[in-house]
Design goal:
- The complex is a heterodimer.
- Chain A is of the alpha/beta class.
- Chain A has one domain: TIM Barrel.
- Chain A contains 12 helices and 9 strands.
- A 9-stranded parallel beta sheet of chain A has the order 5-4-3-2-1-9-8-7-6.
- The longest helix of chain A is centred in the last third of the chain and has 17 residues.
- Chain B is of the alpha/beta class.
- Chain B has a 6-stranded mixed beta sheet, sandwiched between helices.
- In chain B, strand 9, helix 11 and strand 10 form a beta-alpha-beta unit.
- The radius of gyration of chain B is 19 Å and the shape is globular.
- Classes of the chains: A alpha/beta, B alpha/beta.
- At the A-B interface, helix 3, helix 5 and strand 6 of A face strand 2, helix 1, helix 8 and strand 11 of B.
């Protein structure tokens, strides 16, 4: 059974929701990433979403764009990111890792090589933002062959037949984008999110994570009340920007813990 | 060749094109596709488009025989399709009008655009003023500097120009920022995309609106010379003026089609914007799968061209297909050759061409002397060069 499945099953039995922090691999530097991943787990993360730097992150707001630029200055590419996961797996064999990024670095590497390497190093899922199910058929056969879950986005604007197509292709969990806009925007409509999440739940048994706009413990708690997982991205990256090389891991652990406590207080 | 029928229903030109967009924009792209499929054959839409092209843009644009230049070269006769004479000074207005008419029918009150050289930005600002729409144009900060006159024109026309500071601060970054705006505001905003690339239906739709160039030329050349040209040449950045000129000629296989990319400092230097000529790998950017300049990690690399309008790492999907099926050839012209052609047209014909169009012209200058005097080359003079005064002066070491 996949690590993602195990985690969601355990959380469901405990009546808790998954906390899914996002950081960009290589930000602020390549050496910092694995210690930061460990700090996230220590603070209470259930799944780690690891961003693959890309030169043209069209779906991201300024905060995650800057994270990509910092990582690219160090020359961090997809192969390096996969190596970082291998390093992380030397001490952690249970926390699922989902890669999130754009399709072109994977196209450049080749989907079969990518999927094989994901399986080797212990990546559990892959979300390629600009590859919708219609364009992903052949590419995602390679992921399936190596038991890597393809994670897909759904949005407030996704029509019912669109939701059907996406849930049919998705594995692991569904990532619901809670607002119209890029990552890090700030206008979260909780009632709309709740009704949309309920609508998606009616069509799939997959867990649903909500992200894009979770910016503090309070919103994390509110989202935890209506979704199976809470994804926190830009807020994590802002914490990295505020920190020094010495205290970045400790600060991320502290922030994660705050989110964790808030999410667990819904029971 | 057999019947040429591209793209398919989901925008594929063979292995190229498609819809590679984040889920957040898929509904907006789907809606655009449905609306365009509905209106493209609507008689009222077609009539209004034709009216605007005739009375607002000033079409048909003439074909001009460059007599002195041809005699100087001593080979094939060179003809120019004068898109530079259009209102706003380039072919970009054809497409901007078409998309604005669609925006109007879709009830969108706000239009956005990306621009490189500024010609598409000016065209969009123009049609926004014409139809009473709010207009925001995204432009790389580097291009804002090198195309200052066009920035001022857009502002005069009432548009907001947003300089984009991310990435290489050129056209591709302006595209990224426009896409971010669209995903945030797609309910009330129409993205007037400037070239024959991007997610379906843009490559098809922009081609359809620009085809007026080739359709006119196909009628005008026999009237003027008694037959079709032997060679048709157009510059290719994203490729909208070229596909507008080429498409009506695709099944006329006696006509050779040549697309001219920006060779920058030379293909060998790596500092260019010529993905087709340099045999770049296939990749995905801005919603479509195309030949794309990228490094081994799949990161998009910075391009270089003297001409901001050609300074783009990708190229429209239909040009990728035309290259693969060998219906069109693609070559590169470097910065120096483009400037020499620019000078030649100024001096021999009294026409100041855009630096983009100077690339197409430069290739004509290169091949005409080796062709017989009974041959004809048709060059798409896609725009005029007024906007390039600062750039050309700087290259010549002159302070204006």
């Amino acid at each position: 059974m996949s690590r993602i499945r195990v985690v969601f099953d355990q959380l469901r039995q405990q009546g808790r929701k998954a906390l899914v922090p996002f950081i960009t691999a290589g930000d602020p530097n390549p050496q910092a990433t694995v210690p930061m991943m460990k700090a996230l787990v220590e603070g209470g993360a259930d799944i780690i979403e690891l961003g693959v730097p890309f030169s043209d992150p069209m779906a991201d707001g300024p905060t995650i764009q800057r994270a990509s630029e910092r990582a690219l200055k160090h020359g961090v590419g997809l192969r390096n990111v996969l190596d970082m996961v291998a390093e992380f797996r030397k001490t952690n064999t249970t926390t699922p890792v989902v890669l999130m990024g754009y399709g072109n670095p994977v196209e450049a590497m080749g989907w079969e090589a990518f999927a094989r390497r994901c399986a080797e190093v212990g990546v559990d899922g892959a979300l390629t933002v600009d590859f919708p199910p219609e364009e992903s058929g052949e590419a995602f056969q390679h992921l399936a062959r190596h038991a890597i879950d393809p994670i897909f986005l759904l949005a407030p604007t996704s029509a019912p037949e669109r939701i059907d197509a996406v849930v049919a292709a998705a594995r692991g969990f569904i990532y619901y984008v809670s607002l119209r806009g890029v990552t890090g925007a700030a206008n979260l409509d909780l009632a709309e999110v709740a009704s949309k999440v309920a609508a998606i739940h009616g069509k799939t048994t997959l867990p649903i994570g909500v992200g894009f706009g979770v910016r503090d413990a309070e919103t994390a708690k509110a989202v935890a009340a209506i979704a199976d997982a809470v994804v926190v991205g830009s807020r994590m990256v802002q914490e990295i920007e505020k920190s020094t090389e010495q205290n970045v891991a400790a600060n991320l652990a502290k922030l994660t813990r705050e989110l964790r406590v808030a999410m667990d207080s819904i029971n | 060749m057999g019947k040429y029928d591209f793209p398919d229903a989901r925008g594929h030109f063979g292995p190229f094109g498609g819809i590679y967009m984040a889920e957040t924009l898929i509904p907006a792209v789907d809606e655009l596709r449905r609306q365009y499929e509905h209106f493209r054959d609507d008689p009222d839409f077609k009539a209004e488009f034709a009216y605007e092209l005739a009375h607002y843009v000033g079409r048909p644009s003439p074909i001009y025989y460059a007599k002195r230049l041809s005699e100087h070269l001593g080979g094939a006769h060179i003809y120019l399709k004068r898109e530079d004479l259009n209102h706003t000074g380039a072919h970009k207005i054809n497409n901007a009008i078409g998309q604005a008419l669609l925006a109007k029918r879709m009830g969108k009150k706000r239009v956005i655009a990306e621009t490189g050289a500024g010609m598409h930005g000016v065209a969009t600002a123009t049609v926004a003023a014409r139809f009473g729409m709010e207009c925001v144009v995204y432009m790389g900060a580097e291009d804002v500097q090198r195309q200052a006159p066009n920035v001022f024109r857009m502002k005069l026309l009432g548009a907001t120009v947003v300089p984009v500071e991310s990435g290489s601060r050129t056209l591709k970054d302006a595209c990224n920022e426009a896409i971010r705006d669209w995903v945030t505001n797609c309910d009330n905003t129409f993205y007037i995309f400037g070239t024959a690339a991007g997610p379906h239906p843009y490559p098809m739709m922009v081609r359809d609106f620009q085809c007026v160039i080739g359709n006119e030329a196909k009628q005008q050349m026999p009237e003027l010379t008694g037959r079709q040209p032997d060679v048709v040449i157009a510059c290719v950045g994203g490729g909208s003026n070229a596909i507008g000129m080429f498409y009506p000629y695709i099944e006329e296989t006696s006509v050779q089609l040549i697309g001219v990319e920006a060779g920058g400092h030379g293909i060998a230097t790596g500092q260019h914007a010529a993905p087709l000529t340099a045999n770049a790998k296939i990749g995905v950017l801005h919603g479509n799968k195309v030949y794309l300049m990228q490094d081994k990690d799949g990161q998009i690399i910075e391009t270089h061209s003297i001409s901001a309008g050609l300074d783009y790492p990708g190229v429209g999907p239909e040009h990728c297909l035309l290259k693969d099926i060998q219906r069109a050839q693609y070559v590169a012209i470097d910065d120096d050759e483009a400037i020499a052609a620019f000078d030649a047209l100024c001096r021999f014909e009294g026409i100041i061409p855009a630096l983009e169009s100077s690339h197409a012209l430069a290739h004509a200058l290169k091949i005409a002397p080796g062709m017989g005097r009974d041959k004809a080359i048709l060059v798409n003079l896609s725009g005029r060069g007024d906007k390039d005064m600062n750039t050309v002066a700087r290259i010549k070491g002159i302070t204006l």
